[in-house]
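During the no-cost extension, the postdoctoral fellow (Dr. R.K.) reprocessed legacy sequence entries with the updated structure-token encoder. One reprocessed record is reproduced below for audit purposes.
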Amino acid sequence: MTDPKKPPIYTLLCELAGWTLLRTADLPKSHRFTFGQRLDNLTLDALSLAVRAIYAAPARKRPLLEELNLQLELLRVLWRLVQEQHWISQQQLLFVIGRIDEIGRMTGGWLRQLPPK
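Re-encoded structure tokens follow.
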């Protein structure tokens, strides 16, 4: 359910965080700490950056959104590595990459709306 007070990027990141926490809990125990914790932290950091950007003064939004873009790229890389190890299915990878790409497009649109540096 979308929160009418929050931007869609916030809602998508919350959904991604919930999905990520469920998937990383199922990773093999020997890799849960390295991959699972990293994925959990990156996802929660991305959510944190989005929240900070929502409430930041206009002049402070750009660096937060640029950092968010970097976090999203790191998430793409890690999820691909996880799928290559067959810890998630190809369908799950397509789902999560699709969500990350959608969040990335929203971030890019938000950046384009900001005044130039």
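The longest helix spans residues 29-55. The chain has a mean pLDDT of 94. The remaining legacy entries will be reprocessed before the final report is submitted.
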